[in-house]
Here is the input.
Amino acid sequence: MRFATQTAAKARRARRSEPVILFTVSNETFAIAADAVQEIRSTDSLAGAALEFEQSDVPKVRHAIERAHRTYYVVNAGMHFGLDVTRPTLVLMLRQLRTAVLVDGIERMAEISALHPLPRAFIGDERNWYRGLAYLDDLVIPVIRPAGFLTTEEFERLDQAWKTAEEQREGAFSA
Amino acid sequence: MTSLQNRGPNSYVLLQVGKRRFALPADTVEELAPPVRLHGFPHRSPLVVGVIVRRGHIVPVYDVGPVLLGESSPAHRFYLVARRMFGRVSEPSAIPVSGECELASCEMQAPQAGRPGYVAGRIEVGDESLDVLNLETLVTSPAATNQSFETAAWEAQP
Here is the structure.
């Protein structure tokens, strides 16, 4: 027979901490799971690789990057979160998603031991933006939902716009 | 008032928002919290200005000033933590209040004609007639949903 308190204590001990990357956008701090990020690059290093949309149906996306036969759409995190537009210096290339995110800087790596659900009082887009909230060093920090940067519908619109842009580029080359 | 012992079925917590006083049914109120740090982050929820941390819980903070006063709540001294129902689930929610709260026992009367939907009734305390608020209706009223969802720039004033 096991006492409930023993089981609960064991569960608490077994709870794993999660490594996260703390990054900043327009003086706001966010956390993203470290294993959701494939690569962090400076915006300068992508200057030649990023192609600009002449016209984007999704205003927060103005560039795309072709890598390993995949098109990554570059989301301006400031515009995504409705913050003041700044001059981003880094790009987070996300894992398993065709999304790259422009951010102002990386603060540090950290470990979170608990992810608090977003209170039900929050009823807006933030329910898609965040997996939950972390309480870290006396700060409440939203933990990003990587898939929340672009919806399926936004991907479809961007894919269509990208296809059209490619056809125009090919037409221009052949002419 | 930091705890709510001795509250009965006709008990109300009297709170001050700006220069006006209102009442909340005492059975919905958890505590009067000190002016702890308000944490803000981007969101698009009307009236919510951030969260505070109380007893290990993350509690959303509503600035009800725009609905009750027509402007953001002025400097406040405490957070009144009350429970808000979401279906069968309840969650604590905090309202910044300007001063100490009192506990009063009295019968609630029907609201006066023409009062907004978030006024559940009125109570007479001394020579004052106070609106009893329905927190749920207050934070979901059309006046609330028309509010800007920017994170407020204010902090608790000790």
Q: What stands out?
A: Residues 148-158 of chain B have pLDDT under 50 and may be disordered. Chain B touches chain A at residues 37, 39, 41-45, 48, 51, 53, 58-60, 62, 84, 86, 89, 91, 93, 139, 149 (CB under 8 Å). The domain at 3-156 of chain B is CATH 2.40.50.180 (OB fold (Dihydrolipoamide Acetyltransferase, E2P)). Residues 135-140 of chain B form the longest helix (6 residues).
